[in-house]
Amino acid sequence: MAREKWSSRIAFIVAAIGSAIGFGNIWRFPNLAFKHGGGAFFIPYILALFIIGIPILILEITIGQFYQTGDAGAFGFINKRFRGIGLASVLTSFMVTSYYSVLLAWVLRMFVYSCQGSDGRWANVAPSEGFQWFLSTVTGLEDSLTPSRIVGPNVGALAIVWVVIFLCIGIGIKWTGRIAYFTVGLPVLLLFVLLIRAVTLDGSSEGIKQYIGEWDVSVLSDQPEVWSEAVSQVFFSLSVTFGVMTAYSSYNKRNSPVFSNSLIIAFSNSLYSIIAGFAVFGTVGYLAQKENVSLDDKEFRKLIGGPALVFGAYPVALSTLPGGGHWERLLFVALFLLGIDSGFSLVEGFVTVLHDTYLFQNAKRWMITAVVSLFGFLVGLIYCTDTGLIFLDSADFYINFMMLLVGLFECFSVGWIYGIEGQIQKLGVFPVIGYMIATFASVALASGLWFGSESNEVRNGFLGLIILYLVLMAGVLWWCRQKKNSGVIEMTWKELLTELLMGNMLQFRRELVGVVRYIPLLWFFLIRHLVPQLLLILFANLAASENEKGTGSKFGHYLSYPTGYQAFGISIFGCTCFVIAVGLLFPKCYSCFSINTIEDEENTEEDENVRDLGNVEQGDGIGQAFSRNVHV
Ligand code: PHE
Hints:
binds phenylalanine; mainly alpha; 632 residues; 27 helices; 0% strand
């Protein structure tokens, strides 16, 4: 049976934009900018977007489209030991869905509240009271941090959210594409309405000035975690490292232009974030003026960070406008639509992986979706307890580690493992593995020196990096020289170095060319020589960053929440590591996740050939064989 396809290229782009644009754009992004030196945050954000985010987005869209399967299958093609990365990413996405759906449930409840009374729910309420009310009435959070009960209405709202998710993706990808036009189009319109309203309010310019007008660049060195936060934000917002983009692009025609698609998705997403910032902080500036407080006021700043913003300050501010009730409703409708397409894309990543396996190849898509939805709902009950918000915040924080780790492994597998057999054949094991160790060991040593000690040994870190790299590389080159002299390697130095530095990537490029259209050479370079190394450094940076109270590293002491919450977050992270490790050590454990058949509808005359390949164990150069058999 031919693989289902999006009805058009635009349908894919719109659905991918829908996945990318979500709560992350409207409260995470502006909030980060506000917290980290206003406009100065744009520096790490833009760098992270261009150097890391967009390359990984291209990576995911490429492999999904090229191999025509979800994350587990696609990484299985690269190397069967790396199938665990695909599994880890969809597992991460499942964990995110389980709390993302609860956020949607809260939005739903807030919408219902906003419909009570013609003036809306928040008329004549102070911003602090607004958020407090949300905490106690909607989430159920009281003073104690020990979970004691399940909040019934949240369970009901969560069930509704899961039914909607099920309906959006259970039927098929064509239907999902059609729904996405609506869930993307309407929030864009609504954003412009909110934006125009915001910038025409008194005091809005003050808010906007704080958001973008003040460039406190000192935060870039004083708060080094701003760099890893920027990368995490870019990952979360672009929906990469969750298997979502791979799943979506696996329903593309194989010759859809990957590069331009990725740029359109990434730019639309960032544009939305930046514009949302104006709408949010214009309104916040107005609220500050109305309340007669300064935007620098510590207490007030607490009310405009994270959930307090959308569930407290924002509706309160809107309620003071003429026709306030309608504005509140508009906000929650926009939020729900923004979030729902991100929610169902997360589930789609999971469903695609399952549906493509031997295990579930004959199961109906709607059945798989129904079972996944049921599980998602059940796991989501944790966040429907009275301390659900704290669970949610903990999970959301530890997800940052998973994103960096999964991103690192994704780039490592494509940049360093793909085609490694060919390199070893030409050069021998020692130089290929030696070069890999020289690269990563020196970066790991430098990260240890930079972030492992109290005194932040910047100079020693660089020294360590350079010395270790040079020593190991000298060993590698000396070995190559011996082999060259003895005639074992018959290549010129130029050929030898090209093979060592970029051989596998050039091979990958040859495989892709003519299939997924143009991808610049720079991308191949970045995926091998910059992105995985940077992610390793950022991972160490995040792991070592101090918590707010200075009582230890954030890892294990996030916001000084009680140990149970830290354990909860760490165990989620532990699961990801475990899934990756099992795949690396015992690849056979995941053979049930290999894909059922490989075929392409544009390839009918060669179907026999291709189907034969489906029986070959993945990861044995089958990717190369596959592409040779498919001419598009
Ligand atoms: N990108 C979405 C947002 O910004 C969240 C999301 C993450 C969706 C991961 C899919 C995958 O809110």
